[in-house]
Structures are given as C-alpha cells and as structure tokens.
C-alpha cells in the first residue's frame, strides 16, 4: 500500500514537471512601453496573470517580461486604472508595443438633496436626523469588501453522490442537490464565464481602441527586396512565402480597400535596399494612404532599410571621374507617419562613391612624363558601392556600412609627374572623399581630381508632407550622410 502511494506521488510529480516544461518552452521575452501624456510612467507593476511573473517599468516606462501567446498582462499602480493586455501571436512579434494608461479617478457618491421639514434651528434639526448606519470599518472590524457572489455548493456529481451515501453520517444539502440536478449550477458557471470573457473583450477594446489594426508584411522569409512600396503591398494583398502580405489583427475580417479610420503597421524585419546613383530613390516608400489613417513604420531588431552605395569614380591621365551618388533609405509620403526603430534595427542612407584621381604630366629632357590617377572607392550601402576602375589602380569595394572602399593610388613617374589618389568611399564613420589632382614637377602641369558622389538620406519626404524628428522613436541606429536632411523639404523627388 505504501509503495503504491509512493509511485502515485512520483507519477504526479512527473506530470507536473512535464506540464511545466511544456509551458516554459514557449516563453519568450516580450517588451513594451507604458505611455501617458501626463502621468508618471515609472514603477508601474506588470504581472503575467498566467505565469505569475512580475516586473516594473523603468523611468522611460519600458518593461520586459517572459510571456507566451494567449498570456494576459496586467498593469497596475495606485494612480492608474487597471489595464489588461491579452497577447496573441501578432502582438508578440511587435518590436515594442505601447500600453496607454489612464488616471484613476476617485468619484464621490452622488448627493441627492430632498425637501425636509427643517426648523432652521441647527441643534433641533441634528437631533431629529436619523442616526447613520454603523460600518464595520468604523469600528476597526475587518470585513469582505468585494463583490458578493453566490456560492456553487456542488462542483461535481461525485460530491453529490458521496453526500447522499453518507446521509446517516452527515446532513443532506437539499438546496445544493436541487441546484446541481436542475442544471442551475451549470448555468451559473456559464454566466460567470461569459461575464469574464466580456470583461476581457472590453479590456482589449479599451487598450487598442476601436480602430481596426492592420500589419503590412515585410518580416517573413522573402519579404525583403529592393525599391519597395508599402501601399502597393497593401493593395496587392497577395502571398509571400506562404504568408499574407497584410494581416488584420484578430483575424475577424479581411483587409478593407480603403484604409480610412484604420491603424496600419508597416512591420520591417528584413533587409530592404535601393539602387545606385539617385538620392531620390528610396529603399522603402510608405506610399499615399487614405485620410484619417494612422500610419506607423516598425523596424524590428533584424530590420534594415538602407539606400544603395555609390560606385567610385574612374582614375584618369586627364581629369578624374566623379563618384556615383548614394540613394536613400525610407521615403515618407504620408504626413505624421510614426517611425519606431527597435534595438538592432537600422535606417541608413547610401553613401557616395569617392572621386577618381586626376593625372599629372611634365616635360623633361625633351620628353613628356605622364602619370595616371587612381580610381575612387565604393560607398557603403545596400547594395554596397563598387570601387572605380581605370587609371593607375582600381578603388576597392565597400565592405559594410562602416567600411567604405579605399581609393586607388596614383602613378609616380620618377617623381617628375604624379597621378592623384582616388577618394575614399563614404560610410557611417568617414565622409566621402574627392579625388586628388595630378602633379607635374617642373611645369606644375596637372589635371583635377573627380568630385565625390553625394550621399543619400536616411529619411526623405515628399513635398508638402509633415515629418520630422518628433515622429521618430529610435532605439536602433540611424546613419545620415553629410548632405542629408531629416527636417528639410526634400522635394517631390521621393521615388
């Protein structure tokens, strides 16, 4: 008998361990930010209702907690209303979600003034008034303050049968038996379940608002590319690698053709590049959206929106060739677009290619001495700029956003004539360089080096569009070239 009890105990512990392991395998870090225009957003308690995990927000309102899909997060503090967030698979993939809190207002009970036969004598009127009811709190006695609910006395038919069999030993609960047999308890439990679900729905509505939430897919396999337009992807509503291009949060309706009154998330967690030699060309454009659309670009930790790097200019015995232009990252074509960049995410310009070196020449001992310049290095971007060719030596290709290509060296003809060095390709740490001019020793005959290519911009906006630093929330990286502007009107050339 004792050994059987031991085996049962071990079996129970095994089931408990297996269930716990299955739960923990799906847990991942979920990050968010508590947002308010006027309230203190630090020190707010965040509780995972399902796992019991807890944390508090930092001074900026940010938090991170272990969670899995279907978990419910509760947000509480003495100065805010209790907020609940139900996590689904679409919410879990967001790089950082904002939780809007509201001030908790203590409302006074309504005072109703009724006519009374008052004498005007304060002493007499007070003595004639009925005594106030005595509350347990007034005399220091603890008591129940919550919502009183009817107790379900029998939770199973088994307990009812046991009570009946033990009738000689224990009294039979007639009321409990009736409620169990008649189905009253079952209906009461169903009513409470529906009430709880309604509370959850109301909490979700309070959190998200009544705006339809949609996500444009730039995160799944194959969703990246070059020179993409978010509105075009929204309109096509096709498939990418088995994934819908547009997902409606909650999945209870399809994408509306008119985005008015909805909130659209352009979620990027892949590489998106551009094409070279035109700063107006953007890797990703928002496109135009219907009025009253709330538009938000969310760049995840693996998302990169990067303009193309310009090619280096050619070296020459004459004048050096100009470096190619870099292109731009994100093109804003809808006013007040909100951009959120998560840690690890990047929005960058494409940097210009270095100018090619010019040639030098000199007349000495009745003969001409010529020297060709080196070619310019490629600018950083996506794709990376290529080193220029021609002249004495080629420039090198860019290798990363922080490593533009080096310019090629010029030819030295017996120190009598020297070709110019090609300019360095631009990157996030070094400006794009002009090509050097050639040199002639005695007559100082020389040809000019080529001009550096212009950098693109991390952000470009179309004419008449309102967008600036206030619409950017950056926890990742933004790389802008020397010629780039965020706030300036960059014209109608967003392409």
Number of strands: 30
Number of helices: 7
Quote the beta fraction: 15-25%
Task: Specify the oligomeric state.
Answer: single chain
Estimated radius of gyration: 36 Å
Q: N-to-C terminal Cα separation, in Å?
A: 81 Å
Shape: elongated
Average pLDDT works out at 76
- Total count of domains: 3
Helix content: 10-25%
Please list the strands of the largest sheet in the order they lie side by side.
Answer: 13-8-14-17-20-29
The main sheet comes to: 6 strands, mixed
Question: Helix/strand-derived class?
Answer: alpha/beta
* Low-pLDDT sequence parts: 8-24, 166-170, 485-492
Would you write up a description of this structure?
This protein starts with a helix and ends in a 16-residue tail after the last strand. The radius of gyration is 36 Å and the shape is elongated. Mean pLDDT is about 75; it is low at about 10-25, about 165-170 and about 485-490. Strands 13-8-14-17-20-29 form a 6-stranded mixed β-sheet, with helices on one face. Strands 9-15-18-21-30 form a 5-stranded parallel β-sheet, with no helix packed on it. It has a 4-stranded antiparallel β-sheet with strand order 3-2-5-6. Strand 5 (about 70-75) and strand 6 form a beta hairpin. Helices cover about 15% and strands about 25% of the residues. The protein is of the alpha/beta class and about 500 residues long. It folds into 3 domains: about 25-100, Immunoglobulins (Immunoglobulin-like, Sandwich), CATH 2.60.40; about 155-210, no CATH class; about 210-495, no CATH class. It contains 7 helices and 30 strands.
């Amino acid at each position: 008998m004792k050994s059987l009890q031991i085996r049962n105990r071990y079996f129970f512990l095994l089931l408990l361990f297996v269930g716990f392991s299955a739960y923990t395998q799906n847990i991942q870090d979920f990050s968010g930010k508590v947002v308010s225009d006027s309230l203190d957003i630090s020190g707010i308690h965040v509780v995972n209702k399902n796992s019991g995990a807890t944390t508090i927000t930092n001074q900026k309102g940010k938090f991170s907690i272990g969670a899995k899909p279907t978990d419910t997060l509760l947000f509480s503090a003495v100065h805010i209303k209790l907020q609940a967030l139900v996590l689904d698979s679409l919410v879990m993939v967001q790089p950082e979600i904002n939780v809007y809190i509201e001030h908790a207002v203590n409302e006074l009970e309504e005072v109703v003034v009724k006519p009374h036969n008052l004498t005007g004598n304060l002493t007499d009127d007070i003595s004639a008034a009925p005594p106030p009811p005595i509350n347990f709190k007034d005399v220091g006695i603890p008591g129940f303050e919550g919502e009183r609910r009817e107790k379900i006395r029998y939770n199973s038919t088994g307990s009812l049968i046991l009570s009946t069999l033990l009738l000689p030993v224990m009294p039979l609960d007639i009321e409990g038996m009736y409620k169990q047999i008649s189905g009253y308890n079952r209906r009461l439990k169903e009513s409470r379940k529906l009430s709880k679900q309604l509370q959850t729905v109301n909490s979700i509505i309070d959190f998200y608002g009544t705006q339809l939430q949609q996500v444009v897919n730039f995160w799944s396999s194959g969703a990246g590319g070059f020179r993409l337009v978010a509105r075009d992807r929204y309109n096509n509503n096709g498939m990418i690698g088995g994934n819908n291009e547009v997902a409606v949060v909650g999945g209870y309706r399809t994408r509306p053709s008119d985005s008015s009154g909805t909130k659209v998330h352009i979620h990027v967690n892949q590489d998106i590049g551009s094409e070279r030699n035109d700063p107006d060309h953007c890797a990703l454009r928002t496109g135009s959206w219907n009025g009253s659309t709330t538009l938000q670009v969310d760049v995840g930790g693996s998302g990169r929106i990067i303009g193309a790097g310009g090619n280096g200019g050619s070296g020459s015995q004459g004048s050096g060739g100009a470096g190619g232009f870099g292109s731009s990252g994100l093109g804003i074509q809808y006013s007040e677009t909100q951009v959120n960049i998560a840690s690890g995410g990047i929005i960058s310009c494409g940097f210009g290619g270095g100018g090619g070196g010019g040639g030098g020449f000199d007349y000495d001992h009745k003969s001409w001495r010529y020297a060709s310049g080196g070619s310019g290095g490629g600018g950083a971007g996506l794709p990376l700029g290529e080193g220029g060719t021609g002249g004495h030596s080629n420039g090198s290709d860019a290798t990363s956003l922080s490593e533009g290509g080096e310019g090629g060296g010029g030819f030295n003809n017996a120190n009598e004539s020297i070709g110019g060095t090609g300019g360095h390709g631009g990157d996030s740490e070094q400006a794009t360089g002009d090509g050097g001019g050639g040199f002639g020793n005695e007559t100082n005959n020389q040809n000019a080096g080529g001009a550096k290519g212009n950098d693109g911009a991390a952000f470009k906006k179309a004419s008449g569009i309102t967008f600036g630093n206030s619409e950017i929330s950056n926890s990742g990286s933004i790389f802008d070239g020397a010629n780039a502007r965020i706030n300036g009107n960059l014209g109608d050339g967003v392409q």
